[in-house]
Amino acid sequence: NPSMSRQSGKSSLLYLCSQHIKTNQTLSISLSPLNKSGGESLTCKFFQELVNILMDYIFKSNERSSKILDFHHPHQLKEGLEGFSLDLPDHPEPLEQILVDCRDTLKYGVKTGHPRFFNQLSSGLDLVGLAGQWLTSTANTNMFTYEVSPVFLLMEEVLLKKMQSIVGWCEEEGDGIFCPGGAVSNLYSLLVARYDFYPEVKTKGMCALPRLALFTSEHSHYSVRKAAAVLGMGSDSVQVVPCDERYPSPEGLFGLVPFYVNATAGTTVYGAFDPLTAIADVCDRHKLWLHVDAAWGGGLLMSRRHQGKLQGIERASSVTWNPHKLMGAPLQCSAILIKKRGLLQECNQLCAEYLFQSDKHYDISYDTGDKTIQCGRHVDVFKLWLMWKAKGSEGFGSQVNKCLENAEYLFKQLQRRADFKLVFESKPEHSNVCFWYLPPSLRGLPPGPDTNRRLHEVAPQIKAKMMEEGTTLIGYQPLGSNVNFFRCVFSNPATQHEDVDFLLEEIARLGSNL
Ligand code: ABU
């Protein structure tokens, strides 16, 4: 019975566990249970109980009737709820309490695997991926050297090669690394591009370089500007290319010293695609580094649908691709692919001798840690490798298609309803669908600043109620001249048409008296 409570209802395993603790008064959580007499049995019981808690959470995340979140304000969580305390004790707490803490942590969190969670580009809970995550944590090793991560480093190589071949690079091309998220992948691309043009930057810094400019579209991810700031180029060095409705115009790329262009394959809000081939032509002509931020759109490479949107990606010098988004790998799993082999190593290596000894007895090219700007690196590859084994490339394709079909279904439902309005009348290019809800009081009003001002307030009010009720979750934002609108994104293959119907009905219910 995993639904134990602090006050009552201990499961039999938990009871046994707590009895064991009582008879071993010296047991401390700072010591591994395995180190105690009878420790194996206690360890098994502890983990069996933990698995019960996790399974209960997973099953609840899949029950449509269960809440996605039990919302509390920060001060309420800090004050402590029903015995759940964030405070750190001076003395060890019993394992029983540790299990209760695990359960409560999940209770007050957000079930991002719920089929009605539409808030983020990453959602769902892939069970094989989860198993991979658990194995990774059990192995608890570091990706810097082959001597401590032989298998995981070879898996990383296999995955990077596979992804590079899917992008369309040939056997002789391609390098890369898994790193913490799309923003860091984008940062790597800018770092390596700058080094490629100006290798002296590594030792002399920015004062040895001319003032650099880079280009990105106004709808691209904010991490491009952040990377320019972090790398000492300054966010003002980013030239923001205006978009024409959804597309940046290649003609916008003019007037400044060419260096780097970020093209987005699947923008965060609209799911739009920059015209990669046209941008690659401009980059070729002016010898610019072309980076494609396919953090969100990269997953489409696994499907036959919408693949044309990614035409030209093979001409990129670097690509960001997040398998933790559309491909559903558990967070985090993000790759930066660099076409020119060796550049990543040259750009970042400092050859720390305590770690990257040159006289090791194995092929030290697998000590990839010096390619990175980190030292220690989490193993993000195993879960993806395991998922790929379990699904095959075709399985990823079907999963992505399911998300795209859901987006088309939502689009069609919105087209036929008078209480909603689409931000774009054309079919979605990705699984993003953007729309306004029009409460009865706003229907039929003439367009204009006053209507817009009132419409701007609708989505935040509905979202606040949605969070309080916890039945579904969707994001909203303004963008350019568009006042606050909802953005629905599909990346959880567990979502069905009934969940899409529910979302619309729920928004209409929560917004009916606005
Ligand atoms: N690059 C993070 C995207 C955030 C989101 O899920 O909307």
From TrEMBL:
GO terms for cellular component: cytoplasm; presynaptic active zone. One of its GO terms (molecular function) is glutamate decarboxylase activity. The keyword Nuclease does not apply. PROSITE patterns: DDC_GAD_HDC_YDC. Keywords: Decarboxylase, Lyase, Pyridoxal phosphate. GO terms for biological process: gamma-aminobutyric acid biosynthetic process. The modification N6-(pyridoxal phosphate)lysine is found at K325. Its cofactor is pyridoxal 5'-phosphate. Pfam families: Pyridoxal_deC. Belongs to the group II decarboxylase family. Homodimer. This is Glutamate decarboxylase 3. It comes from Gadus morhua. The lineage of its organism: Eukaryota, Metazoa, Chordata, Craniata, Vertebrata.
